[in-house]
Amino acid sequence: MKPEQHDQFTPNSSYTSGLNRVEIQAQDDKHTPPVSALERWLLRKVIREIGDPPLRIVLWDGKELFRTTPEPKTGVIIHDRSALRRLLSKPSLNFCESYCSGDIDVEGELLTFLEIFHQCRLTATADTGIYKRRLADLWGRSNANSLSGSRENIHHHYDIGNDFYRLWLDTEMQYTCAYFPAPDMSLEAAQAAKVDHVCRKLRLQPGETVVEAGCGWGGTALHMAKHYGVNVRAYNISHEQVELARQRAREAGLANQVEFVEDDYRNIQGEFDAFVSIGMLEHVGVEHYRELGDVINRALRPDGRGLIHSIGQTQSAPLNPWIEKRIFPGAYPPTLREMLGILEPWAFAVQDVENLRLHYSKTLEHWLARYEQHEAQVREMFDDEFVRAWRLYLVSSIAAFNTGALQLFQVMFTRPGNNDLPWSRAHLYADKT
Amino acid sequence: MKPEQHDQFTPNSSYTSGLNRVEIQAQDDKHTPPVSALERWLLRKVIREIGDPPLRIVLWDGKELFRTTPEPKTGVIIHDRSALRRLLSKPSLNFCESYCSGDIDVEGELLTFLEIFHQCRLTATADTGIYKRRLADLWGRSNANSLSGSRENIHHHYDIGNDFYRLWLDTEMQYTCAYFPAPDMSLEAAQAAKVDHVCRKLRLQPGETVVEAGCGWGGTALHMAKHYGVNVRAYNISHEQVELARQRAREAGLANQVEFVEDDYRNIQGEFDAFVSIGMLEHVGVEHYRELGDVINRALRPDGRGLIHSIGQTQSAPLNPWIEKRIFPGAYPPTLREMLGILEPWAFAVQDVENLRLHYSKTLEHWLARYEQHEAQVREMFDDEFVRAWRLYLVSSIAAFNTGALQLFQVMFTRPGNNDLPWSRAHLYADKT
A41-67 pLDDT, tens per residue? Predict the structure, then answer.
């Protein structure tokens, strides 16, 4: 089965996941005995626990096992008995695993299905937290983000190949939420707007010094140096990212202004006018927030400004176990309250918080569109399962941001008595001079 | 001694508190025996514990007891032995009490003295929290904000007479932090700008409904109704304030749009498009935040927007014991982290936090200037001690905001998956049409 090319794919257009178009083939186990009453009961229970989404369950023989509502909006097709059993033991994890391997399929739009799932989960868990605690028990602890653990976790995701990321990120390769003050702007423009927005919040002046904790392929640091005349020291433990970032700095003639250090944020040295961290906090782990606060306190001058940009949540819940296992080991999106645990021990004063949740949906829609355009190349680089896994990751992230299961917090702060503050935030929105 | 009139007083000009200009009169106890070594040691210890501010101590005989630095910037004059003893037992409380009664005086500017005090306290307590915990033990619990306790606490401050507040508040009588996007605007313009800023953050549309928890003399509710065409139900337990607010609504022809309810926020009834609370949270008490969150969840429609505006802190510490005893019983300025304890149980998503700390310094400078202009009238209404107490309250509040001991947080929120959001905050800063 040759995948369709999606050259006409644009963000916001509806699409069907590759797997949905696969004809359900006759399964080897079509002669297996029917599902037992116990299995049916357990599956019904699992679905009730995630908030009873309006769906139907279809089995390998093409017959419907049950539906949760007279008119289900979506459905799950379970292609074999072992996938059903795995689903009963670890529903979230194994749904995703089986989806990637093709043992489970979704009826209708994958995005709709995942949005319904998130919506039900949010409704079911609001205030009670019971399901989330159960899941937390079930899912177990994530990889520890010790110095060596972090290196391993980051290597897992970010060192799978710069060429792969280049296929679907913007030209500057910024792998974090962009900023779309006008929703129809291009991804490239929105990524530049994000860095500009951050620089304006930090009120960077030429000649000032900035330390960046977690710098990806250097897009933010290079933009700051080029357009704001600052000197940046940027830390990252992803070897592949740092190598490319250094090369880009040399090519842009900015090597004297931007220093890329292949080291952990905990080893930041020096004092700076500004601290910035965009999309690293998700990998830090709440148990290390106090340590991160110590680093910021050590690194920031008395009149310094700081900004942390991170995926977040409205209530504490572990990351989806499949995302945590396959995509982002050791990752956790904090609540805003948890983020303040970084700043409060040193009495940093929050000056500005902005929630950019829907900007991440839009960023992801752009990434997904480019990803689908390059599906064939991804399959050549990796394999079919990888193609499906990365699609599931991108689509489920869109669903999570669209439904509010994930948020995006930009938190700007200073020391408590810093009186060098603008009288309003209008300067963030003034036309550039 | 006739107090000088301060007709020329303008915000930001330096001034000397009335007491500082009083000639230090010969005291009856000038023949009392000298201060003991123990008393001197204890006083030195107290000063060290508050962070060793650079000051000198002068006694009733005009002689200096000691100085903490070769060139002290300020000093404390203790006019009699019993004031010294009271100072040793409960330093913060009794410093203020004795200042009000005239038994203790300050050398130099009162504002400078209080700023130094706050600065030292902040430096001494950053990260350790030891002093604050000791103070918390020392100061004991504030009045409980039960339904009846709140009524008593609010009556203490807000029912001392509308005529008194009219002397020094703006014409609309808004007794909360104003918003000065241009620092030289008038108090009246800045109070109107504050309500406009809040209404824009809430994106109020004509015909929508708003519930206000704690409404003072009705300034915010009336402004919202008049300029944004919304219907407001506003709650307040201060009898004097509600009476005047109702009268103002009738006079403005807004009685059909604004309903003032003399009742506790916990008894809010109905569902609304917006929830707003400006300057009430300080009186709620952290132990009631969960209850307040329940009220907001009950009162807010699924697509509703909420805003809480409150004095805050960067680290948890009890209010100054004198302010808590004499000015605001039961009051406590929360950390932003504590404020999120209102929103997190119901998974409200914070969309925007803005810190308006220096706007409160400026608001207070305006209030103090008007207060000083009307000092003679205040003395006629009350007495000398009241005049000094209120001055101490206003000046110490300026010092607290200037130094960062107090912050001002405006927190705007929605339900987590509300997608009716603007793509940027530029609309807050666009010129009015």
Answer: 999 999 998 888 999 999 999 999 999
- Report the CATH fold assignment for A18-139: Nonspecific Lipid-transfer Protein; Chain A (3.30.1050)
Query: What does the DSSP 8-state code read for residue B279?
Result: S
Structure tokens given for B353: 């936090």
* Cβ contacts of B409 on chain A, cutoff 8 Å: 350
DSSP A326: I
C-alpha–C-alpha distance, residues A351 and A414, integer Å: 7
The band of B274, judged by pLDDT with boundaries at 50, 70 and 90, is very high
Minimal Cβ distance to A349: which of B314, B340, B346: B314
B contacts of A419 (beta carbons < 8 Å): 358, 402
Q: Tell me if A314 and B416 make a contact (CB, 8 A cut-off).
A: yes
Question: Closest-CA residue in chain A for B290?
Answer: A127
- Find the CB nearest B403 among A350, A359, A417: A417
> In Å, how far is B114's CA from the nearest CA of chain A?
14
Closest chain B C-alpha to A352 CA, distance in angstroms: 5
* pLDDT tens digits, A229-276: 999 999 999 999 999 999 999 999 999 999 999 999 999 999 999 999
- Rounded to whole angstroms, how far apart are CA atoms B65 and B252? 60
What is the average per-residue pLDDT within B96-100? 94
The pLDDT of residue B432 is: 61
Tell me the percentage of chain B whose pLDDT exceeds 70: 87
The whole-number average pLDDT for the span B185-193 is 98
3-state SS assignment for residue A210: strand
Cite the DSSP H helix spans in A19-176. Answer: 37-49, 81-89, 91-101, 110-125, 130-139, 147-158, 162-168
Whether the pLDDT of residue A84 is over 50: the answer is yes
Q: Which of A127, A350, A428 sits opposite B355 (nearest CB)?
A: A350
Within 8 A by CB and 6+ apart from B74, the residues are B53, B54, B55, B106, B107, B108, B109, B112, B113, B116
Calculate how close chain B gets to A420, using CA atoms only, in Å. Answer: 10
In this prediction, residue A6 carries a pLDDT of 37
Any idea which of A324-328, B69-73, B126-130 has the lowest mean pLDDT?
B126-130
Superfamily of domain B147-428: Vaccinia Virus protein VP39 (3.40.50.150)
The residues spanned by each domain of chain B are 18-139, 147-428
Mutate to test the interface with B, among A118, A196, A315, A363 (most CBs of B within 10 A): A315
Compute the CA torsion angle A334, A339, A340, A342 (nearest 10 deg).
130
Asked whether the beta carbons of residue B358 and residue A421 sit closer than 8 angstroms, the reply is: yes
- The Cα of B101 is separated from the nearest Cα of chain A by a number of Å equal to 31
User: Span A4-13, mean pLDDT?
Assistant: 35
Q: Which residue has the tokens 């399962």?
A: A385
Query: What would the pLDDT profile of A102-117 be if each residue is shown by its tens digit?
Result: 999 999 999 999 999 8
Q: Which range (A412-421, B8-17, B347-356) has the least confidence?
A: B8-17
Q: Which of B355, B363, B418, B420 to mutate to test the interface with A (most CBs of A within 10 A)?
A: B355
SS3 B69: coil
CB-CB contact of A78 with A84 (8 Å): yes
Q: What are the CA-CA distances from residue A273 to residues A192, A267, A420, B119 (Å)?
A: 22, 18, 13, 22
